[in-house]
Amino acid sequence: MTEKGNFHRWGQPLGVLDGIPIAVKDNFNTAGIETTCASNMLKGYISPYNATVVQKLLDQGAVLLGKTNLDEFAMGSGSTDGIFGPVRNPWSYSRQYKEKTPPKSSSENEESDWVITGGSSGGSAAAVSSFTCFVALGSDTGGSTRNPAAHCGVVGLKPTYGLISRHGLIPLVNSMDVPGILTRCVDDAAVVLGSLAGHDPKDATTIQDTFKPFELPNLIDVRKLCIGIPKEYHAPGLSSEILALWSKAADLFKDAGAKVIEVSLPHTRYSIVCYHVLCTAEVASNMARFDGLEYGHRADMNKSTESMYAATRREGFNDVVRGRILSGNYFLLKQNYENYFIKAQKVRRLIANDFVKVFGSGVDILLTPTTLSDAVPYMEFIKEDNRTRSAQDDILTQAANMAGLPAISIPTALSKRGLPVGLQFIGHSFQEKQLLTVAKWFEKQVKFPMIQLEEVKRHDCSVFQHQKSVSFL
After folding, report:
1. Residue-level pLDDT at 22
2. Are the C-beta atoms of residues 20 and 134 closer than 8 Å to each other?
3. What is the predicted pLDDT for the residue at 218?
4. How far from each other are the two terminal CA atoms of the chain, in whole angstroms?
5. Does 343 participate in catalysis according to the annotation?
6. CA-based diameter of the chain, in Å?
7. Is 341 in contact with 282 (CB distance < 8 Å)?
8. Parts of the chain with a pLDDT under 70
9. Of the chain's two ends, which shows fewer C-beta atoms within 10 Å, N or C?
10. According to the model, what pLDDT value does residue 49 have?
11. Residues 107 and 138: beta-carbon distance below 8 Å
12. What is the pLDDT of residue 387?
């Protein structure tokens, strides 16, 4: 008997994902299994129901291996700020990285010589990258699926807002949150999307139309495509390595007969500030439910209700979450509401209109970098505070969330340090089939090399037989 009592005959598959091992980010509710959001506030909380996406995967026969680590309440871009500690990037232990990293002197601590996964869905990206599972769910509010996908060398898909149900995803920013899909290839992402997409009566923001799952073609002709290269994505801090990779990827499409043009998204430069205002404002609203009365942590403070609230939230939330709550409430104060929140909403509309104009001019797909650089060492990452890091790391990804557009990060090549670098494709609303078809064509061209984990390699060398990567760098 399956979940919800669906009987099936012995030997008959439940669905396309029957027997496929999956992992789920720990901000999706799972019935009977702890859901913590990597926070003391929800430590020990067990949800009475499954998130819609989790239930759909189980109904298709998928096998849940476990929940994955994240930044507390998904607020971060490194997966370093949760109560379970930071997530380590599997590529830190790959032969490719070790060969390019100079040996450490005995005085240096080798334990600290590992790189971050990106975030906030770092645990899910690491699980797919390290062969722990075939599919993992992440969430994507400003790039939290695509960013770790790029750093961990896996495919990270953020679908169109409203295509997949958010019911049971503990909210960060309701107007931007989207369940994300992490897989090792584009075809797998298309299969999972087919199982998850469609209307959910429990989520009023989902599409009303029925979604028809699709298969991606094997023979793909890109000659009729117009690929846009947004000049504003040549952002400050973009590494020369990624800039060269982006340029060569554009040439790849041009050489195959596609039309490649430079386009402008003029309001992109305001997007990270706009995102910060809207994100913190919605965070302040969403975090108000964690008051110690109904569920989650409750402080042992009996002096008054107000003191119990204050103690609960001080003990339950880390500095990052408390900081965002304070910022959001400041922007929502009566005297600030017009100048910050309303103005940010207007700028968000301008950013969305930039995409509408570009896609209306005949552009099919936008090609951009996913991240400014490859993954940085943990000790270097924590030198800067969470807010500074998030502002830097989300700069190339969060505009797609504000416009509600589908976007996918594809692993493209290894950097000079032997670490993965990804590029991002952004498509028209609800045109996932076209987006994934172009992504599959690109994936075939670049032949990204498989990770060679040293411990795993000793057990089964045959796993790592692969074609050489196209020399992009």
Report:
1. 98
2. yes
3. 94
4. 52
5. no
6. 72
7. no
8. 1-9, 104-111, 455-473
9. N
10. 98
11. no
12. 76
Residue 120 annotated among the catalytic residues of the structure = yes
Catalytic residue among 77, 79, 120, 409: 120
Task: Return the residue matching tokens 């871009």.
Answer: 77
Catalytic residue selected from 25, 56, 67, 158: 25
User: Is 25 known to be catalytic?
Assistant: yes
Choose among 155, 165, 84, 95: nearest CA to 125. 155
Determine the pLDDT at residue 130: 97
> Which residues are CB-neighbours of 294 under 8 A, at least 6 positions away?
none
How do residues 51-105 score in pLDDT, each as one tens digit? 999 999 999 999 999 999 999 999 999 999 999 999 999 999 999 999 998 776 5
Q: How far apart are CA 115 and CA 235, in angstroms?
A: 23
Q: Which two tokens stand for residue 251?
A: 């040439």
- 153 class by beta-carbon count within 10 Å (0-12 exposed, 13-18 middle, 19+ buried): buried
Give residue 172's pLDDT. 96
Q: Is residue 158 a contact partner of residue 147, using CB atoms and an 8 Å limit?
A: no
**C-alpha distance from residue 82 to each of 39, 50, 86, 115, 292 (Å):** 6, 22, 7, 17, 20
| Residue range 247-277, pLDDT digits in tens | 999 999 999 999 999 999 999 999 999 999 9
pLDDT of residue 28: 98
**Identity of residue 45:** Y
